[in-house]
Here is the input.
Amino acid sequence: MGRPLKTPPPYPIAGVDRALRAAAILQTEGSATVSQIADRLGIARSSAHRLLAMLVYRDFAVQDEDRRYRAGPVLEPAAPSGSLVPRLRAAALPHLRRIVDLLGETANLAVRTGDTARFIAGAECRRALRVGSREGMVFPAHRTTAGLLLLAGLSAGELEEVYAAGRYRDRPADRPDLARLRTELDRLRRSGFAVNKERSERGLTAVGVPVRDRDGTALAGLSVSMPSARYDPHRLRSLVAALSTAARALEGDLAGDR
Here is the structure.
C-alpha cells in the first residue's frame, strides 16, 4: 500500500505545529534568530523565544555565541550542506506572493533530497477554503508535483540509484513502480509541467513547473495548490503560463544574485 496520504488532524494543536515548523526551518536552512522565527511563524518574539528554548532543551536546537539558533543533535544528520535553500527561499518569496495575488491559490516551492521532496517556502491565499502552506513538510518525491519535476531531471542511472531496491528492503511498499514512473517522467519532460491530483493529499490538486540553474539543471519545483473541488482543467494552460513566467523571473533573480 505504501505511505498513506497525509490528512490534517481533526484537532490540530497550534503550539506543536509551530514548534515542528521552527525545527524544520533550522534543519533546512541551518540557523535563524528569534526575530526571524517569530516573523516566519507569525508570533510574538517572546513566544518564539520560549519555543526555541524548549527546542534547545530537547536537543532539537542549539544556540551559538552570536545568539543565533541552529539545528541541534537530533536534527544534524539531515542538515543541509550548502546555502542553496536559504537563497532559493529568499528569492522565491516575492514571486510566490505574486502568484497568489494573480491566481488566488496557495503557492509553494520545494526541493528534492533523495527520494523525498521538502517544501522550503510557501505563500497562502486568503480564501476561506484553501490549501495551507506546506513549508517544512516532507513527502515522497514521486507523490508530489515538485518531486516529479525534479526526478524528471535525473538520468536513467541516477533514477535507478535513488530507488535502488536495497534501500527499500524494510519498506518495499514505499518503492514506486519504476517502469510506470519512467513513463510518467518521460511525458513530463515533453510537457514541461506536472499535475498532481490527490497523490500526496486527499482533496488537493497541484500544478507545477521546474526552476532551473543556468546550465538547465532543475533546482526546485514551483507549484500552485488548490482544493480539488476548485480545480478546472480548462484553466491548466493559464496556470502553467503564470507559473512559467514566475519561474523564469526567479531564475533571473538567482542568476543575478551570484
